[in-house]
Task: inverse folding
């Protein structure tokens, strides 16, 4: 594994622990000689994780759509910045560059990015590990929702193994490094 794609909020959240865990994750990414791939912003948890990687001597690649955000949001200290035409190109390039994914707390954009890579994994488009840094149980409702999808017959139980939930950055990184994708089964109940 060489590159970790991190999805994260463009705000820091109301608890300082969100920011602290983002910084710890960034420091850990750099200490493992991994590179960070992310959305290219200098603000919010996105900016904090990027700053932590850079401060620790690591490499950071940002991917930002042209003319979508105000120029002052773009991080000016990145190792590399790719400007793309739109959000679809952004996500495609981030995924192409990444060997794994981690979601920090965030809002709608973070949720959308997370669910897209989980869905791609379920469909066999990639076999990359997808981790969730569950700071202050932020993602617990999503973990429960996935279990409810299995219980209600909308998702196969093996697909719960497509996402690694962990509260501490080091434990999450270790699980990502040692990730073995679950055996894929037919996702369509009516076709079995």
Result:
């Amino acid at each position: 594994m060489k590159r970790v794609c991190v999805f994260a909020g463009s705000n820091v959240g109301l608890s300082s622990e969100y920011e602290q865990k983002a910084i710890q994750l960034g420091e850990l990414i750099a200490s493992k000689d991994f590179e960070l791939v992310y959305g290219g912003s200098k603000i919010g948890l996105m900016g904090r994780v990027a700053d932590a990687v850079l401060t620790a001597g690591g490499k950071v690649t940002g991917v930002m759509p042209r003319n979508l955000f105000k120029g002052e949001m773009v991080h000016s200290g990145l190792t590399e910045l790719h400007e793309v035409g739109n959000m679809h190109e952004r996500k495609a390039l981030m995924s192409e560059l990444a060997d794994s994914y981690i979601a920090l707390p965030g809002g709608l954009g973070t949720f959308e990015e997370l669910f897209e890579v989980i869905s791609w994994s379920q469909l066999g488009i990639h076999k990359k590990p997808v981790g969730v840094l569950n700071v202050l149980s932020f993602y617990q409702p999503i973990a429960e929702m996935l279990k409810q999808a299995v219980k209600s017959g909308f998702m196969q139980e093996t697909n719960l193994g497509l996402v690694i939930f962990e509260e501490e950055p080091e434990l999450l990184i270790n699980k990502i490094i040692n990730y073995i994708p679950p055996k894929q089964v037919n996702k369509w109940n009516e076709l079995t």
Notes: The mean pLDDT is 94. The CA atoms of residues 42 and 76 lie 8 Å apart. Helices lie at 16-31, 44-55, 87-97, 108-122, 140-151, 169-177. The first strand starts at residue 3 and ends at 7.
